[in-house]
Hints:
This protein is mostly helical. The chain has 2 domains: 1-133 and 267-290, no CATH class; 154-253, no CATH class. It contains 13 helices and no strands. The chain has helices spanning 9-32, 52-59, 62-68, 70-89, 94-115, 123-131, 137-165, 173-188, 193-203, 205-220, 232-250, 267-277, 280-286.
Amino acid sequence: MSKGIRPLTPYRVLISRTLIGTCLFFLGVRGFSGLLPAQLQQPVLTHFHYDLTLWVYKLSGLAYLVAQLPWTAHLFTALLFISGLLAYWFPLQRRFTILFTLLFFLLSLNFSFYLTHGSHYLAGFVWLLCCLWLRKDERFILLWEGMRYYTCWIYGMAFLLKVIGGAFFQWNAGLFSCQENLAGYLYQNPDTATAHLYYQLFQHPYVLNIGHKIVCLLEGAFLIGFFTKRWDKWLIVSMFVIHISTYLFADVFFAELMILALTLIPINGWKWLWYRTVPASIHSLLGHNS
């Protein structure tokens, strides 16, 4: 192992546990919301139109085993949490991480197959978990760096598609997006304080329209990440502003996708977390006293 990579070894454990721990947290949230395979009502309804991946998932019989058959659905859900806990407790034991990743991938397919269509809420978790499969630290760091560029590509392309499609240049795009996505909420909850806030914004549409342009530009800022890492901490802030804004004003919240912010944390950031989450005795044992 090269001398330049060796100090990153303890941070790999911290990265793994942060990623897997966050993953388990969101699984717990889904369980609380009744969205896990074993919690779906029987029979589970699905769509008629699938992409190629979902067709393979359907024809292989996995879709039936994961959600339609009660005892296998409960077994799958139990294995998902057990493998996740083992991967968290033994972050360098790849067999647990690989098993957890594969089960989580099936969960993401199941979510798109039964509950939504072509959604990408869980894609960030799936790709980042694959980074943990690599045995050598050098390859892990190299792939983790590659995922940073993947993060910049996702948000940067979101901006470019709005430019190419013309949404960025449509002045009332913010107003139209808010009205269309919140129509159901306003119809069912016309007298709430939140509804009255939206009514006020509709009376002053320039606020929504300017906000829409700001969010688009924050997405475009990720293109800077292809050329420098100096702005990474601000890109993390931009990511949270983007997702919170789209939740408040477009009723869209890709909360799980924010896990990609981990790829933007610099080595010094992981070092800071390491010294505040790991006992000092372990620092001495590993020779990290500086």
